[in-house]
Design a protein that fits this description.
Strand content: 35-45%
Number of strands: 25
Shape: globular
Order of helices and strands: HHEEEEEEEEEEEEEEEEEHEEEEEEEE
């Protein structure tokens, strides 16, 4: 098994790298990191010039700041009104994921607890308020951990995909209802990402199980309540940060044990020759917890420094694909 993994890495270096690791590492330091003066951040979402961060360990778990990635600075944190609620279960109990959409909305997935059901919360970024149908609850005790948004052609047809355990749910913003998707997956889902299609490829939901195996589900089938699952293959190693898509066929993940950020061209099979190492650095990428996409569809790794009181976002893409 170890030799097989080493062989995969060697193949990736042969087929996928155009510059050396040292050059990539130096390039990243020339583009300043976006530093946040708080530790414990697990997820980050960006909408234009604003960035939202989840800090589950804090009393106020959702914070906001300005997004100025080209300025070397320490961000100033602001509380967001969505934290506050008269009733406990209507507020954020245990937020686990968040994402923005092109229509200026922030989507939050709250896992709840023994007394409060898990829910989706939708926040209007421009007007600093909850939107209509702002809270949608799931069944009490349901395990939810991962969220990705399909914005659709208009804001009214937006869909949210939620996963946890071995289950996938779809929430329709227009209908304000959700339904379970029947799949043959009987393994733990550790990440999901929407992979938009093009003229030759259908839009798929990518599902990562056990940090290693990737499955594809056509989103058109998800609307029917049942879905055929296609196994895309295995990553070259476990990705504890899950995976993400840049919306142009690039799918990104971390080889967590090797501090390596990888891009897979998902229009091609999940094989070493169709992947590219973006950066390897035990100094910069030693604890990537998740990914975030900025308004220009650049991918950043969210690095949680467990020893110092800071988190940073490390830019992983420097050219347009």
């Amino acid at each position: 098994m170890k030799m097989d993994r080493i062989l995969k890495l060697l193949l990736l270096w042969i087929f996928g790298v155009s510059t050396t690791v040292g050059q990539k590492d130096e390039m990243l330091y020339e583009s300043p990191l976006y530093v946040i003066n708080v530790s414990g951040i697990t997820k980050v979402a960006i909408h234009r010039s604003r960035v939202f961060v989840l800090v589950p360990s804090q009393e106020v778990p959702l914070l906001e700041m300005s997004w100025l990635p080209h300025v070397q600075h320490v961000a100033k944190l602001r509380k967001t009104p969505v934290n506050a609620s008269v009733r406990r279960c209507q507020g954020l109990v245990r937020p686990v994921d968040l994402q923005t959409d092109p229509y200026g909305r922030l989507w939050l997935l709250d896992a709840g607890d023994a007394k409060c059901a898990p829910k989706l919360v939708v926040y209007d970024i421009l007007y600093h308020r909850l939107v209509e149908n702002a809270r949608h609850s799931f069944d009490l005790g349901l395990q939810v951990e991962h969220l990705t948004i399909d914005p659709g052609a208009t804001r009214g047809v937006t869909l949210a995909y939620v996963a946890g355990g071995d289950k996938i749910l779809v929430y329709s913003y227009y209908q304000d209802r959700h339904w379970n998707v029947k799949t043959v997956l009987n393994e733990t889902i550790t990440g999901i990402a929407l992979n938009p299609g093009d003229a030759e490829h259908r839009t798929t939901l990518l599902v990562l199980v056990n940090h290693l195996t990737v499955y594809q589900i056509f989103t058109s089938r998800l609307l029917e309540g049942s879905a055929g699952v296609i196994e895309a293959g295995e990553l070259m190693g476990p990705s504890l940060a899950g995976l993400t898509s840049d919306g142009r066929g690039g799918v990104f993940y971390m080889l967590s044990r090797d501090f390596v950020a990888v891009r897979w061209n998902s229009r091609l099979p999940l094989q070493a020759e169709n992947q590219e190492i973006l950066l390897q650095s035990d100094r910069v990428l030693f604890n990537v917890t998740s990914f975030v996409t900025d308004s220009n569809r650049n991918i950043w790794g969210v690095v949680n420094n467990g020893t110092d009181q800071m988190t940073w976002c490390a830019k992983l893409t420097f050219t347009s694909y």
